[in-house]
Task: structure prediction
Amino acid sequence: MAGHSKWANIQHRKGRQDAKRGQIWTKIIREITVAARGGGEPGSNPRLRLALEKASAANVPKDTVNKAIQRGSGKLEGAHYEEIRYEGYGVGGAAVIVDTMTDNRTRTVAEIRHAFSKNGGNLGTDGSVAFQFRHCGHFIFAPGTSEERVMEAALDAGAEDVISDEDGSIEVICAPGDFDAVRQALQRAGLKPDIADVTMKALNEIHLRGGDAEQMRHLLDALEDLDDTQHVYSSAMLDT
Result:
């Protein structure tokens, strides 16, 4: 749709992340380690369960996964990671949230600030943009997926909304606590989302094109490339 395909935006970022498999492994291992603080049994720890599924999808070795769980649950020595969220603005006033896990807060904030300033953005204060996002379970299906089938399975399982985007992709939104139930219902219906995660979804998107889109892409890439970054969320939709 006029260069503003949500699906194309998603695939661009997903493809770029897949190309950096070694870095993805590092992020997943940290996520497992931190999640395991809430208990090393995935059956009673939804966050750990989701992290383990990401590890499986990324082909992280099982031995590496098990050691991360042991470190998180205190059975092995290891670095202590602190979870810190940074908020700021990019090109055109697009809101950006960066979730990090770090063992050195001073290093991380310096790197985040540099990435923002070098690429036309500004690091903000706590709460400066978080109100522009919704914490939710989020599923995205490729164009061509049956909206009727998705709607029936998702809504029956407690999903709050099913959105049909202009480019033909379908989004399912649910409360974070309902993520597992909705995911399992979709699986039983034979529906496989291309994206399934608990995320921060922008309430209002800002469309950028041309040079603004390119500069915003550089900012998002720079933030994602930082070793301590776990997730980057933005309200920007970039001209493809």
